[in-house]
Design brief:
Structural class: mainly alpha
Shape: globular
Oligomer: single chain
Number of helices: 16
Strand content: under 5%
Number of strands: 0
Radius of gyration: 20 Å
Order of helices and strands: HHHHHHHHHHHHHHHH
């Protein structure tokens, strides 16, 4: 039986964020009866929420063009709420009900009658960039799947999950960049899937504490690493080999999406390149701890992030970017 979500290793910051979310849910959730806030107040709320979780809003966010920062905050705030509704609620049935409510609020936004502060702000972004509802619905499908599926049989089934949990984020970025085309979507999907896989392999221990194993059963059986070993948090040669292969596959997805950088508008090239190189750096940090994610979560230091940013800026300014295949 996996450990409970509220584990002894839970940080004070995690508890504070959970308490803040509970307060926000009480204020703006399904039982809220107050009048809708103004667009100005909604924008401010999304900005505060983004800043509160700024470590998740990666260093790439620092290089977003000014014209898009407000809109990225709106999209991030919507995703943050969906994620918290899925992860911070202890009972599965309650989480499902709240995700259904969040879908209802999303549909109300698209019907021109938003009520929640995040949806009031998001409506502005949706209208400005003519974003269809599909990417948001796909993300909600993934959050709901997290309530129903905690194990994956094959890599194919996990990649199908990534199609809903990660790839829509890339589509949203393309819409906000006014450059959503089939060729860009293909590369963006590769980047987003690679980032999602890198995140999974970085968070094996945390996900297991939440009752989830994203490493497919077929991969575990081939490596000779069974679920009893997960229960013990056992690091052994089989686990190392397994993680090394998984990291290589994630890196292949990230590198496969590199041509997207040159295809993006100039002011979005640095953020996109940073997303790719940040994912590769996480995989490098995974290797640096010898793939032992049971005892140490791979992280990037401030120095690592600063170096990544400097190199990305140089690559874009000097024009040293991957070529787009003809």
């Amino acid at each position: 039986m996996p450990p409970a979500i509220s584990s002894p290793g839970e940080s004070r910051r995690d508890r504070n964020e959970a308490a803040q979310f509970a307060a926000d849910l009480e204020r703006f959730g399904p039982r809220s009866s107050g009048p809708p806030v103004s667009l100005r107040e909604a924008r401010r709320y999304c900005r505060r929420l983004t800043r509160r979780h700024y470590e998740n809003f990666t260093v790439a966010g620092l290089f977003l063009p000014r014209r898009l920062r407000r809109h990225f905050c709106h999209v991030y705030a919507w995703c943050r709420w969906a994620d918290d509704l899925s992860d911070e609620v202890s009972r599965t049935e309650v989480a499902k009900e709240l995700l259904d409510w969040w879908r209802f609020e999303l549909e109300a936004c698209y019907q021109g009658r938003p009520r929640h502060p995040v949806l009031i702000a998001l409506q502005e972004t949706v209208r400005e960039f003519q974003i269809p509802i599909t990417p948001f619905l796909d993300l909600l499908a993934a959050f709901r799947q997290d309530q129903e599926v905690s194990r994956y049989e094959t890599m194919e089934s996990l990649l199908n999950y990534c199609r809903y949990s990660a790839n829509p984020v890339g589509h949203l970025v393309l819409y906000m960049g006014r450059c959503h085309t089939p060729s860009r979507v293909r590369y963006a999907d590769s980047v987003c899937t690679g980032l999602q896989l890198a995140n999974f392999w970085q968070d094996v221990a945390e996900d297991y504490r939440r009752g989830r194993i994203y490493i497919p059963l077929s991969v575990r059986l081939r490596a000779g690493y069974d679920e009893t070993m997960f229960g013990r948090g056992e690091f052994n040669p089989a686990f190392r080999r397994m993680m090394e292969g998984l990291a290589a596959e994630a890196a292949a997805f990230l590198r496969g999406g590199e041509p997207l950088v040159r295809m993006m508008p100039r002011d979005l090239q640095i953020p996109v390149l940073l997303f790719i190189r940040g994912g590769l750096a996480i995989l490098g940090a995974l290797k640096a701890v010898d793939y032992d994610v049971w005892h140490r979560r791979p992280r990037l230091s401030r120095w690592n992030k600063a170096a990544l940013a400097a190199k990305a800026c140089w690559s874009v300014w000097s024009g040293r970017l991957p070529e787009v295949p003809s």
